[in-house]
Amino acid sequence: MSDAVVLLSGGLDSYTAAAIARAEGFRLFALTVRYGQRHLRELESARAVAAALGVARHVELGVDLSVFGGSSLTTAAPVPKDRPIDPAEIPSTYVPARNTVFLALALAWAESLGAEDIVIGVNALDYSGYPDCRPEFLAAFERLASLATAQGVGGGSRRIHAPLVTLTKADIIRKGLGLGLDYGLTHSCYDPGSDGRPCRRCDSCVLRAAGFAAAGIPDPLVLQ
């Protein structure tokens, strides 16, 4: 069994990507980053998801990107709601270089473990237009990983797995349900209420709702 480091946010996508990797035979080491996000409810979901997946180890690492600002997810700036989602537009919820930072942290842990595989649940089809969710970004980082590590220089390979990158949200949900996932454990909202309930109006809530509707399956969070 090979080891893989999976970036686990507690959201629907990262849960599904991790489950796919587990089904492919990887032993999972889950990394959740506390980056100063306003939606800390996702950390509770990440813990629940990690437990459900039976990961070998779950690390929560604090790297506070809110000190830089630049995003409505890490500041008091309003989160966009009730708007048409245009993937050609980069919204204020984009956190500058977030996935680059996250993948670098995952790479450091992977090298320490002697693991060659990193799993990330990015999607470039039903998404909010983030530049660091695109296949060309992932390919570039994979190349960087081969140049920036001792194992890479020594001839070892580095693989970035993004099994959801070209799937629709509905296809992701169908895939996860086929793997027996409980999406009631997950959290997707950018701006949850004080009780942790999703706003159902931000981009992430809208995309999630559309995915479940297209899949013809009720969202378990709506039923709670």
Overview of this protein structure:
With 224 residues, the protein is of the alpha/beta class. The chain has one domain: 3-Layer(aba) Sandwich (Rossmann fold), CATH 3.40.50. 38% of the residues lie in helices and 11% in strands. It is built from 8 helices and 5 strands. The chain has a 5-stranded parallel sheet with strand order 3-2-1-4-5, with helices on both faces. β1, α1 (12-23) and β2 form a beta-alpha-beta unit. It is globular. The mean pLDDT is 93.
Mean pLDDT: 93
**How far apart lie the N and C ends?**
37 Å
Quaternary form: single chain
Assign the CATH architecture.
Answer: 3-Layer(aba) Sandwich
Indicate the topology.
Layout: E1 3-7, H1 12-23, E2 27-34, H2 41-53, E3 57-62, H3 98-113, E4 117-119, H4 135-148, H5 150-153, E5 159-161, H6 169-178, H7 203-215, H8 220-223
Parallel strand pairs: 1-2, 1-4, 2-3, 4-5
Helix pairs in contact: 1-2, 1-6, 6-7
Short summary:
The chain has 224 residues and is an alpha/beta fold. 38% of the residues lie in helices and 11% in strands.
What descriptors fit this protein?
224 residues; alpha/beta; Rossmann fold; five-stranded parallel beta sheet; 8 helices; 11% strand; globular
